[in-house]
Amino acid sequence: MGKKLIIANWKMNFNVGEASLFIHKLAGLVQRHDDVEVVIAPTTLALQAVSLQVHHHEFKLAAQNFYWRDDGAYTGEVSANQLRGLVQYALVGHSERRHVFGEGGRDIRNKVQAAYRNGITPVLCVGETANERTLGETNDVIHDQLIGGLSNITGEEAKNLVIAYEPVWALSNGKDFGSHETPTPAEIEKAAKAIRSQVKHLFGAEVAKEVRVLYGGSVNPDNASGFVHAAGIDGLLVGGASLDLHAFALIAEKAHRVTTAKGKK
C-alpha cells in the first residue's frame, strides 16, 4: 500500500514567528511513520523560514498559490520557478481561488503546467458547490474541472499528480470544522471513483491507478478515520483542524492506524 498523504493548508493564518513556533511544537507531536507523508502549506511569507527549519524526513512543504509564468513584470506575484527547491507540492484550483479570486480553467491549466515545469507536484482541487450538489451535478463538475486543469499535461506527468476532492459546501470557516456538514464516506468513494474514471479516460488505466486522490472539507479527528478508510482515497487535505496542534497530530496518527489496519487484512 502507498503512503497516505496528509496536507495541512494553513490558508491566511500565522505570521512568520507563529509559523516557526507551530512547526517546532508540531515536530514533537507528530509521530513519524513510513506509511504517512505529512505536508505543511504555510503562507508564502513563511515558506522561506519554515523551509530552513523543517527536516524533510518529518515534513514536506507545499505552496498555497503561485503565478503560472516563471518570471516577468507581475507585481506582487510569486512564481513556481521561485518556489523551486522550497516546496515539493503546490495547491492548484482550490475553491477559494476559484470562487473568491475568480480563477478559471485557463489559469488552473497553466498553473498545473508551471508546477510540472519546475519540478513541483501539483495538488489539483476539484469539487461542487451546494447548488450543484442539489442538482445532482457533482460528476459533471468533477469532469469539467479535471478536463480544464489537465488538458495540457502528458500521461507520464499525470502519474505523479495529486487530486483533492473538496466539495465547496463542506468547507468550514476555519473554526467550525468540528460541526460542519461533510459528505459521507460513501459519497466520497463515489467522487473518488468519478475522478479516477475521468483520469482513465484522459491518460489510461495505469495512470488512473497511480494518481493519488485526497479528500478535503472540514476534516477533524473524529471523522478522519472514516475519510481515510474510504475506497480510492489516499489521504486528506486539512484546513481548520491543521491550525490546532493536537487535532492535526491526531489526524496524522489516525491515517497511520487506518493504513496499518488495511495492510493487515
Structure summary:
The protein contains twelve helices and eight strands.
Description:
The chain is an alpha/beta fold. The protein has a single domain (4-264), classed as TIM Barrel (Alpha-Beta Barrel). It has 12 helices and 8 strands. It has helices at residues 16-27, 44-53, 80-83, 95-99, 105-117, 130-134, 138-150, 155-158, 185-203, 205-210, 224-229, 245-264, and strands spanning 4-9, 36-41, 60-63, 89-92, 121-126, 162-165, 212-216, 235-238. β7, α11 and β8 (235-238) form a beta-alpha-beta unit. α1 packs parallel to α2.
Topology, pairings included?
Elements: E1 4-9, H1 16-27, E2 36-41, H2 44-53, E3 60-63, H3 80-83, E4 89-92, H4 95-99, H5 105-117, E5 121-126, H6 130-134, H7 138-150, H8 155-158, E6 162-165, H9 185-203, H10 205-210, E7 212-216, H11 224-229, E8 235-238, H12 245-264
Parallel strand pairs: 1-2, 1-8, 2-3, 3-4, 4-5, 5-6, 6-7, 7-8
* Element-level helix/strand string: EHEHEHEHHEHHHEHHEHEH
Low-confidence stretches: none
Strand content: 5-15%
Relative helix content: 40-55%
Q: What Rg do the Cα atoms give?
A: 17 Å
Strand tally: 8
Strand numbers in spatial order across the main sheet: 1-2-3-4-5-6-7-8
Main sheet attributes: strand count, strand direction, barrel closure:
8 strands, parallel, barrel
And the CATH topology? TIM Barrel
Based on secondary structure, the structural category is alpha/beta
Indicate the mean pLDDT.
95
Query: How far from one another are the termini?
Result: 12 Å
Please give the domain count. 1
CATH architecture: Alpha-Beta Barrel
The geometry reads as globular
List the total number of helices: 12
